[in-house]
């Protein structure tokens, strides 16, 4: 999920201020500690890789992790578009209802509130869909699995303890930020795990998110494209989209304002649909409309998508995304067309937005690819995979 506003206040001397993707100001006050290096010795698992189980919840993906001592399981959204791990915490001043019980820090012997000049340190994060979380920062033990069979323990991990958060419906416990920013889970894993992560999303069943060497995506059929990490929008993984093919029609970004050489679209596990700037988006829509003979209808979901009356997805053209460096992703029709709650209506799963809102490559489009991030070689790799069969 893309963040509109983020404020993390700790006792820091270093202040970073940057414009957020939506033109708001981020006051990101960071304290980089050495705690990650001290935990390395404990987690020298001799080549073992950390991982967590994941599950699908309607249009987002959750991972299971444990917080506290004794370990307390939470289910939190996998979000490459943000930089904070937070979970709802007791006592709640304003918590949304969640499926799993709410974490109670008073039950944990390792929970430690961060202090800022004698006071609690606060955070506030507001996401692009206007949901938010507010609370206090703490250090706490976070535990996931590891391929060695031993748990992967991250002592003194900075987390947000949410006391006032909003969501649209009863749902998960919190968020796991997986951006390359300083507070994300992957960054806090420490130097032994240099930004290697992979996931495989499907619309059914369970899967895994992998870190470390097990997260390397390589082999036959793998395509890779460069990730661009800009300090103007810190933490986000940008890719460069050169063109989209709709059937045989090639819609180039070249010659449009969307064209770029160093990243024009964010890959985000926490956003469902795909977003293109309106001028380019309309070219893609025209190409789709050229192929489809069914009758058009207004988007019943209110998102202004391109929709048709049809009982079958078969009438639509195949869409291929061409990322820089020859990474051509031939997408399944499921990735690009969605049946709405109004039966007999299918829509193109691409929303047109207006810059400076960002272009986003969402999780629906990433379905049934094993997606690997490697922040040291600066590559994102895709391997076409039946994700619901991968770990069964
Ligand atoms: C951080 O680690 C470096 C290198 O190990 C060490 O020299 C420095 O004193 C540490 N700083 C703190 C605040 O622990
Ligand atoms: C929770 O935060 C929202 C948004 O900042 C605020 O309007 C509301 O008053 C807060 N609720 C409580 C109970 O503190
Ligand atoms: C907290 O601990 C008590 C006593 O062990 C237990 O009964 C309760 O279920 C725990 N609650 C949570 C939310 O962990
Ligand atoms: C993917 O795997 C699932 C579970 O094994 C299976 O039911 C499904 O038919 C497979 N899909 C394809 C397209 O092979």
Description:
- It holds the Pfam family TAXi_C.
- This protein has 392 residues and is mainly β.
- It has two domains: 3-215, Acid Proteases (Cathepsin D, subunit A, domain 1), CATH 2.40.70.10; 223-390, Cathepsin D, subunit A, domain 1 (Beta Barrel).
- It is built from five helices and 32 strands.
- It has a 17-stranded mixed beta sheet that branches. It has a four-stranded antiparallel beta sheet with strand order 20-19-25-26, with helices on one face.
- Strand 31 and strand 32 form a beta hairpin.
- The two termini are 28 Å apart.
- The chain binds 2-acetamido-2-deoxy-beta-D-glucopyranose (4 copies).
- One 2-acetamido-2-deoxy-beta-D-glucopyranose binds at residues 386, 388-389, 392.
List the helices and strands and how they pair.
Layout: E1 3-8, E2 15-19, E3 25-29, H1 35-40, E4 50-57, E5 60-67, E6 72-79, E7 85-88, E8 112-113, E9 115-116, E10 119-120, E11 122-127, E12 132-146, E13 152-165, E14 174-177, H2 185-188, E15 196-200, E16 206-211, E17 223-226, E18 238-239, E19 241-246, E20 249-252, E21 265-267, E22 274-277, H3 278-291, E23 296-297, E24 307-309, E25 319-323, E26 327-330, H4 333-336, E27 337-339, E28 345-348, E29 350-353, E30 360-361, E31 369-374, E32 379-384, H5 387-390
Parallel strand pairs: 1-3, 6-14, 7-13, 21-30, 22-29
Antiparallel strand pairs: 1-11, 2-3, 4-5, 4-12, 4-16, 5-6, 5-12, 7-14, 8-12, 9-10, 11-12, 12-13, 15-16, 15-31, 17-32, 18-21, 19-20, 19-25, 23-24, 24-28, 25-26, 27-28, 31-32
